[in-house]
Structures are given as C-alpha cells and as structure tokens.
Amino acid sequence: xxxxxxxxxxxLGAILWPVMAPAQTLIAPEAFLDAVVGxxxxxxxxxxxxxxxxxxxxxxxxxVWRMEGRGCVYGQxxxxxxxxxxxxxxxxxxxxxCWWPFLHNDRLMVRLAQFVGSETQEVRSISDDSLNCPxxxxx
Length: 139
Prior knowledge:
By secondary structure, the chain is mainly beta. It is 13% helix and 44% strand.
C-alpha cells in the first residue's frame, strides 16, 4: 500500500459507514475532500486499468482535472446527497458529474452516480505534486 493510500485511509478511518456489500465501505464526500485537499490523485478505470485522468484538489470547492494528452479543466465541487460532484468549465450540457467514493478490499474507488452506464474508477496514487496548470480563480 502506498504512503498516499495509508494517509487517506488514516484520515478517513473514523468517518466511514457501511453499505450493503460487506467488502465495501462508503465514504462521506466531505471526509474524502478533507483527506485529499492539497493532493493530486490518479484515477484508473477498474476493468481495463487504463489511466482515466489526474485531479488536483485545490480546495474543498475547486479542482483541476487533466486527461492524458489534453489541457487542464477547472471544476467546482459540491457534495449533494452523499455524492461528490464536479461541474467542469468545459461541461457541454452544464451538468455536474457525480461520484460515490468508497473503499473496496482496501482499495479506494469512485463509482459514477448513475444507474445506466455507470463506471468505477480506482485511485492508484495520491501525491503532493501539482499538475502545474495555469492559475485559476478559487472562490
């Protein structure tokens, strides 16, 4: 287990609650954010293992996302209904993308909060490194 994962598990340990599957533990979005603000996280698609992208959590309400071969996209973070939602500057429909963060067999995951076409991603690394994106206003 990497140092980043140990740090995240320690920070979240007291704030977890169980869900129906015994090997899964849902994480409150606020607890997730408390643990990742100031960190940069890589997300990989669970089935293929391919890198989906990297997110730097600038504050509890703002992040910057970068996919391989693409530029930086800034997002506003909200936490409605136990979800963590990101409204990115380039969202064509103006709607946020929402996730449920959870632990599964000691692996940090996020699951797209929709019933059709849902996707699960695994956090593979957590670091203090910046994405070195141009500055964005943080409110």
